[in-house]
Amino acid sequence: MTRFLTATAALALIGAAAQAEPVSFEFDKSHTIIQASWVHQGYSTQSLQFTDYDGTLDLDLEDPSASTVDITFNLVDGIWAGANQERFLGHLASDDFFGLDANPTAHFVATGFETEDGETGTMTGDLTMNGVTAPVTLNVTLNQVGETQDGNTKAGFTATGSLMRSEWDMGFAVPYVSDEIELFISTELVAAAE
After folding, report:
1. What whole-number distance in Å separates Cα of residue 150 and Cα of residue 103?
2. Model pTM?
């Protein structure tokens, strides 16, 4: 309840125009991780991060159903898998996975938001990758909303979920490499300047 009240108070700082209307936010990319992980042949958990993304983040923390989330991921040079991974990244770009020649981007559009306490809930949406669109659901936690030392309004969120990569025609090496992909997102968003 405290976080909900804090979020409401922080939105009031934005001004009268924000009342009962979504507020536009931008990613603080220096404080955002968008990660996918999987099990490799039962031996280890591997992961990659999506590093090149942008979109519309119009959030209404009082009425999440009025929010708009629409994000495009540039997958060409926008995936980081760690050091010495050039061969792996080349394989990800192939038709076994993302098929980047034909599909250089991925796209997520939120289709619904549900919360009972204003702090935790779910965000459903359509994810398009490799030329295929399928639904995903993320469990979302509002970590904090407040005013930063430089006077900006910032909101922090954590989101988790999973998907079956074969639904996007990326079933290469299943079941030796897990079909299920775990998603982890931790982000700080800054209210856009008017």
Report:
1. 39
2. 0.87
Q: What is the pLDDT, as a whole number, of residue 140?
A: 97
Token pair recorded at residue 65: 């159903």
CB half-sphere exposure, 13, CA atoms < 13 A:
16
- Residue 106 · residue 129 · CB < 8 Å: yes
100, 67 in Cβ contact below 8 A?
A: no
Alpha-carbon gap, residue 100 to 50, rounded angstroms: 14
Ordered by start, the domain boundaries in the chain are: 2-191
Placement of tokens 């559009």 in the chain: 109
Task: Show the tokens assigned to 38.
Answer: 């999987």
SS3 per residue for 24-79: EEEECHHHCEEEEEEEECCCEEEEEEECCEEEEEEECCCCHHHCEEEEEEECCCCE
For residue 108 the two structure tokens come to 């997520």
CATH fold, domain 2-191, is Lipocalin (2.40.128)
Predicted confidence (pLDDT) per residue in 177-194, tens digit: 999 999 999 999 999 987
Two tokens, residue 32: 């955002």
Copy the structure tokens of residue 115.
């919360």
CB-based contacts of 41: which residues, under 8 Å, 6+ apart?
176, 177
